């Protein structure tokens, strides 16, 4: 197996495109905040226009369709075909597994690179407590159907205090599912998570005690595993993706963020107005990316300080990496 930290690429960008905020589920950690992101469902013409704002760099841009639940959009298949024509480097649909509007019959594996399913527990008990009754079965059914139709599938597991203990059971669960990639996410304290009664963020000790080992076990089964670095080692360099990479998180009310941690606040860098990408006046997230602080990520310090621990002298015990900095484990040929 080969493990590497995936630095931000200067040559490629990511476009996280929320085409609606509506969803059939109401997960306890959902980051969608309708007060900040609106309730609009973008029509296909608007989706085309907004895609074209980013299409100059399409060949170096990974496009990810998100919601809400993107398959609830009646024209998702059309949107996928338009983005394919525009030549995006890769196209992914993130889904909660319900696969509305017969999406698997309206697109093919040639149209998209990945169909990514969210599952937040190794058992229905934990997953459904987080994501809603019946969602566990729907995800497994959806993966089976998608794999049998030849789609490349991945899985996203968002780790919190609620489900960290079940991550250890995931290597066994995913063994025969036919997924090609497994993404571990760390919970962001925004949207519904920011209103949780109990803290959801896991400690550094719990994170380091579980994530790397489980990731290696999953990779040992021939699956590519990606997880966020979260805590920097003392000798590692801190970089803010907002300064050195191009990530755009587009919401249906036109807000365009470069840092996902900011999404609960009107700190977005751009706004799409009359199909133009308009830079926002100061103060916005870009002004904050430039701040150099001993804690590392400035938004963790300002907006989700639960991650930070200080010594008796008031110095941070560790620095927080950019949430876009990932570790990636490639399975070895032997493991495959
Ligand atoms: S499936 Fe996604 S968008 Fe829907 S409630 Fe859950 S986290 Fe939110
Ligand atoms: S998570 Fe922190 S380091 Fe990364 S883009 Fe946001 S502010 Fe910058």
Structural class: alpha/beta
Strand elements, count: 15
CATH homologous superfamily (4th level) name: Aldolase class I
Helix content: 25-40%
* Mean pLDDT over the residues: 94
Total count of helical runs of at least 4 residues? 12
Biggest sheet, spatial arrangement of strands: 1-15-8-7-6-5-4-3-2-10-11-12-13
Sequence of secondary-structure elements: EEHHEHEHEHHEHHEHEEHEEEEHHEE
Low-pLDDT residue spans: none
CA radius of gyration: 19 Å
Could you tell me the strand content as a percent range?
Answer: 15-25%
Described by strand count, sense and barrel closure, the largest sheet is: 13 strands, mixed
Count the domains: 1
Give the bound compounds: iron/sulfur cluster
The CATH class is identified as Alpha Beta
**Global morphology:** globular
